[in-house]
Automatic annotation (TrEMBL):
Enzyme class: transferase
Protein name: DnaQ DNA polymerase III alpha subunit
Superkingdom of origin organism: Bacteria
SUPFAM superfamilies: BRCT domain, Ribonuclease H-like
InterPro entries for this protein: BRCT_dom, BRCT_dom_sf, Ribonucl_H, RNaseH-like_sf, RNaseH_sf
Record GO terms (molecular function): 3'-5' exonuclease activity; DNA-directed DNA polymerase activity; nucleic acid binding
Pfam family membership, one: BRCT
BRCT domain: residues covered: 234-311
């Protein structure tokens, strides 16, 4: 068979479990030839209509996702990038779970399974006795300065894949998976009903020119999101009895915020209604259910630091 090679993938996600509603918000993909040579790279942010989780880990802001394609918009192009290639990831059980979940959301199954996947984490443990990507990179002298960015992690994993090929070139699993992936390539759905969208890398990668973008999309900043949230009225102040809703993973624990706010006479509500005066979000550009409902009702959305300053200034009676 004329093998295409490998597609090394990394996802950044809102959480750990797609079965509980977590979503992929960034993908990095690197093509690797059957002999281990790197061929090309691709990346994009992915818009999701929910809170985006632990931003202190993936360093993606909600405002960056506003103009990013939804998964539906990248599904056809991603299919072309994956079909016929071995799906590789460092902890492939995690990344494949999100890939399969995203395609199932579109009502389709893809032939990514134990026969067509390869896990560099398991292989590294077997060959060199370490498993984490950081430890593997250290062992082989691979730079991964932008760790927890999908493309940087995928690039580091692709380099690791080449080192593992050199370490055990006679392993039968290489050819077995290449053949299985080539055969499975004929069973990928065409997905012609989905309209293609331009891929949008994270802003820092565009600014630093870390990769060639697909379609020439440009990154955005907060200025591009003007009018996205209802405006906060001039001289807005909180009053005793005001109803407030909190959303997202904040720096201060939710229970601590609730105790502090209630001690000052504010009412913390679990959901957004028209009686709510303010929504406080870990990221004010979040597309969580609460944030979207607040926009529908014209309720201002502020960041946690605004609330911190409001507490210092005091609550009106």
């Amino acid at each position: 068979m004329n093998s295409k090679g490998y597609a090394v993938v990394d996802f950044e996600t809102t959480g750990l479990n797609p079965a509980r509603g977590d979503r992929a918000i960034e993908i990095g993909l690197v093509h690797v030839a059957p002999d281990g040579m790197l061929e090309d790279e691709h990346e994009t942010l992915i818009r999701v209509h929910r809170d985006i989780g632990a931003q202190w880990i993936h360093h993606i802001s909600a405002v960056e996702l506003i103009h990013a394609p939804e998964f539906e918009g990248i599904a056809r192009e991603l299919r072309d990038l994956l079909a016929g290639r071995v799906f590789v990831a460092h902890n492939v059980a995690f990344d494949s779970k999100f890939l399969l979940s995203e395609y199932r959301r579109l009502g389709t199954d893809i032939p990514v399974n134990s026969h067509t996947m390869l896990c560099t984490m398991k292989l590294s443990r077997s060959l060199i006795g370490v498993g984490s990507l950081a430890d593997c990179c250290r062992e082989f002298g691979i730079d991964n300065e932008d760790a927890h960015s999908a493309l940087s992690d995928a690039h580091a994993t692709a380099l690791l894949l080449g080192r593992l090929m050199d370490a055990d070139p006679e392993w039968s699993g290489w050819r077995r998976r290449l053949d299985a992936a080539e055969e499975a390539g004929e069973h990928w759905p065409e997905l012609t009903s989905f309209e293609r969208r331009e891929w949008l890398p994270r802003r820092s990668h565009v600014e630093n020119n870390l990769q060639c973008m697909i379609g020439g999309a440009s990154a955005i900043g907060a200025d591009d999101a003007t009018g996205f949230n209802p405006p906060l009225p001039k001289d807005f102040r909180l009053h005793v009895g005001d109803k407030i809703v909190l959303t997202g993973s904040m720096r201060q624990r939710r229970s601590d915020w609730e105790t502090e706010l209630e001690s000052m006479g504010l009412e913390v509500r679990p959901s957004v209604t028209k009686q709510v005066r303010l929504v406080v979000a870990a990221d004010p550009y979040s597309e969580s259910t609460k944030a979207r409902k607040a926009r529908d009702y014209g309720i201002p959305i502020v960041a946690e630091h605004w609330l911190e300053q409001a507490m210092v200034n005091g609550i009106d009676y």
